[in-house]
Amino acid sequence: MTSSNVTAVTKFLDVGEQRYAYRRFGAGPGLPLLFLQHFTGTLDNWDPAVTDPLALGREVILFENAGIGRSSGSVPKTMAGMAQHASAFLDALHLTRCDVLGYSLGGMIAQQMAQDRPKIFRRMILVGTAPRGGEDIMHLEKPSLAGYLNDPKLLGYPVLGKIFFAPTDSSQAEADAVIKRLLRRTQDREPVSGPAVAQAQIAAFREWEVQTENRFATLKNIRQPTLVVNGVHDEMIPVRNSYWLSENLPNAVLMTYPDSGHGSLFQFHESFTKQATAFLASDSAAAPY
Amino acid sequence: MTSSNVTAVTKFLDVGEQRYAYRRFGAGPGLPLLFLQHFTGTLDNWDPAVTDPLALGREVILFENAGIGRSSGSVPKTMAGMAQHASAFLDALHLTRCDVLGYSLGGMIAQQMAQDRPKIFRRMILVGTAPRGGEDIMHLEKPSLAGYLNDPKLLGYPVLGKIFFAPTDSSQAEADAVIKRLLRRTQDREPVSGPAVAQAQIAAFREWEVQTENRFATLKNIRQPTLVVNGVHDEMIPVRNSYWLSENLPNAVLMTYPDSGHGSLFQFHESFTKQATAFLASDSAAAPY
User: By the 8 A CB rule, do A288 and A228 touch?
Assistant: First the structure.
């Protein structure tokens, strides 16, 4: 038994023709916590400093959606399609109720699942994400991101250090520490996502960004106690999207972090895991904890 | 010895010609925590469900600014003037360093003090407040507030129940509970603020609201770890003012509460005091806790 994403064995689950890669580790009294990953991220993009402390109180389940890493199939071009895969995965594990940590793209999938299956999640943590109808979601072509993404000296994890963190010495030092932790896993790693993954997920962001007449009105259907988290300098999915979530979800607490961007949960992993643990420990019907 | 705002004796401190009313109670390893009160509020507007749990870990000092309750003098028409009184009060107590909980008007005074005397506060909690240059600060003439304020059936605490809370059954039930707790103090109460107090404080809000060319630029001088708190449905000082604080203070965590308005700290007193206690317990130079 291992309780770290540095060493946890990658498992596989077959559902019909579809094979899903995942990791499941940890133990404790809490409900299992499903992790839904960010744009192009694989199981190897979960910082052990975030997964491992949470695995002390519950099982954590890191899910590789269709078409990513060693999960078979192709990446759906809508959040609804990705939500269906996550839902099929939970069914195949015979999990009828769990908690969820949805990060970025994963936070949109979590919202879609909560709309589709209101009872599947007890409590939700939504980090660096946006509601349907949100704004400026993953526009990689904008200058603040394109400069780093087109820099040939920045490939793989180092580019994350630029686009997931703030351009301050303190945030960049934490970026380096996160990358070191991600590199501690040396065996049984997932293949890195290629352009096809990125293209399909970008299409899903564009569909998610479409504004309807009653913008954000459907958020009132998500009644779960929810903790919304973001860094105030997030360039990938700006923090105003988290404001809209916390203002329109009926039962959400918002926490923002200073001096940080999209990767605030990794930068402030001690605080984040402490807050997440306290939030998940609550059995109240209300989000405040 | 008492450790509750229901029973704590009101004390008086003379500084030259000026007399300040205050209450000081509680004990513990933490630095003293200075409470700076909201628009027209007196010492009797501090919910014991907020003061008393915090008094378990430190002394709490509830300060009655000049011209309020039994403090002598007249209410200054600027935050700077009110900050000078609070500063003189701390000097007379020989307190050179403390923590502060600034609520609404009190949060503006706390920011002014942090600008004037950068070392006076170790950690700051700013609830339901706004930065200098903020927006829609205490415009009592707007319909969402004036309707309640001009209702002859609502006088004293009951009007607070309307304008400090959200118009939902759940928030209104908490408003009733807060008012009941405030009424538990029956002896040694402060006189209620009259129109002169309100007029001077409104003048101070108008001066605070003036926007300068580099809006919010001076917030970078406030380096203290800061916890910013607000209810997402605050009609008196809308939550976007708290967003500006947390985006422009270099070292601030923001927490917002759902289903609540200006009085979120009272409505969610269990969560608020738990979070405030954890925040104040930290000795880190960074705000995240």
Answer: no
Residue of A nearest to B270 (CA): A289
pLDDT digits (tens, 9 = 90+) for B27-82: 999 999 999 999 999 999 999 999 999 999 999 999 999 999 999 999 999 999 99
DSSP for A68-90, written as a single string: STT--S---SSHHHHHHHHHHHH
Residue A1 has pLDDT above 70, yes or no: no
List the single best residue of A171, A216, A254, A259 to mutate versus B (max B Cβ within 10 A).
Answer: A254
Residue burial B149-180, b: 16+ Cβ < 10 Å; e: rest: eeeeebeebebbbbbbbbeeeebeebbebbbe
pLDDT tens readout for residues A125-162: 999 999 999 999 999 999 999 999 988 888 788 899 99
DSSP B60-87: EEEE--TTSTT--S---SSHHHHHHHHH
Give buried/exposed letters for A66-91 (b at 16+ CB in 10 A, else e). Answer: bbbbbbeeebbbbbbbbbbbbbbbbe
Q: Which segments of chain A are extended strands (E)?
A: 11-15, 18-25, 33-36, 60-63, 98-103, 121-127, 226-231, 252-257
d(CA A139, CA B3): 54
pLDDT tens per residue, range A44-67:
999 999 999 999 999 999 999 999
Predicted complex: ipTM over 0.90: yes
pTM: 0.98
Mode of pairing for the β-strands spanning A226-231 and A121-127: parallel
**Distances, alpha carbon B68 to alpha carbons A58, B192, B205, in Å:** 52, 8, 17
Rounded to a whole number of angstroms, the distance from the CA of A7 to the nearest CA of chain B is 28
Phi, psi (5° rounding) for residue B270? -65, -50
Task: Check if B216 contacts A (Cβ < 8 Å).
Answer: no
Q: Pick A98 or A144 by higher pLDDT.
A: A98
pLDDT for B156 equals: 82
β-bridge partners, A61: A24, A34
CB B89 within 8 A of CB B63: yes
